[in-house]
Amino acid sequence: MTVRAGFGRRLAESVAARGALCVGIDPHPALLNAWGLEESPAALERFAMTAVEALAGEFAVLKPQSAFFEVYGSAGVAVLEKVVAASREAGALVLLDVKRGDIGSTMTAYANAYLDEHSPLAADALTVSPYLGFGSLAPALGIAEQTGRGVFVLARTSNPEGAALQRSTADDGRTVGQSIVDAAGENNAGADPYGYVGVVAGATIKPGELDFSRLNGPILAPGLGAQGATVQSLRATFGAALPSVLPATARDVLRHGPSVADLRSAARRVRDELGVLLES
């Protein structure tokens, strides 16, 4: 396996050069239709590669949502492979949103599919689910660490259905979400500027709900825009952890297509607004 600089360092360098914004590539049927496209593999490719053309050369992280490609079968997965390769070639880090979580050899297979150097789907990082136990993620964590890639572990998601589980209290008094943040932090101990195990915490969660002080890793914060979070609300939500936050948006940028210039301008506006927030 090829060994790179740690993912935390690579992410920090990319954010410093390109700004703290993660843009999702979500070929949702409603967006395809809004672009005047049918629901087909050819239209999927046009949509996704237009987004890559607009964004990959200028923004730190792109986050393709795998499900919207998988729905087209092997043709859709082939488009996803092109998106991953073209985005990385243009200099963007690719965070593949797959939310995989399993045990043993199955988790190892998932990790090899998305993190191994020889896989056509190998991304810079992927999202994973810890709800078969944080320890079940060991294969993904091991391969990510070896190859200089990253994982983002679901801790406190923005969907209402997640609250009952993620805010429930364990025997030690911590919420389930907090226990996941703390477990991620254990893997990041001593890393500089931060480690390779990030967490997913929705930008719409309650301020102060999670303590990130021991995480020493990145925080993917989906929910900016269409789900109700704003750039201005991020400071109250994340407090002192704000410099480690990677805010994510998708629909609020993608709805400006199919114009490459309009897509790029929409993403620039959000990125610039984030820059002002972080400098204040």
UniProtKB/TrEMBL annotation:
Keyword Nucleotide-binding: no
Enzyme class: lyase
EC number: 4.1.1.23
Sections of the chain in a coiled coil: none
Catalysed reactions, semicolon-separated: orotidine 5'-phosphate + H(+) = UMP + CO2
Keyword Signal: no
SMART domains in the cross-refs: OMPdecase
InterPro entries with a match to the protein in the record: Aldolase_TIM, OMPdecase_AS, OMPdecase_type-2, OMPdeCOase_dom, RibuloseP-bd_barrel
Key words of the record: Decarboxylase, Lyase, Pyrimidine biosynthesis
Listed GO biological process terms: 'de novo' pyrimidine nucleobase biosynthetic process; 'de novo' UMP biosynthetic process
PROSITE patterns membership: OMPDECASE
Gene Ontology MF annotations: orotidine-5'-phosphate decarboxylase activity
Pathway it works in: Pyrimidine metabolism; UMP biosynthesis via de novo pathway; UMP from orotate: step 2/2
Recorded family membership: Belongs to the OMP decarboxylase family. Type 2 subfamily.
Name this polypeptide is given: Orotidine 5'-phosphate decarboxylase
Organism of origin: Saccharopolyspora gloriosae
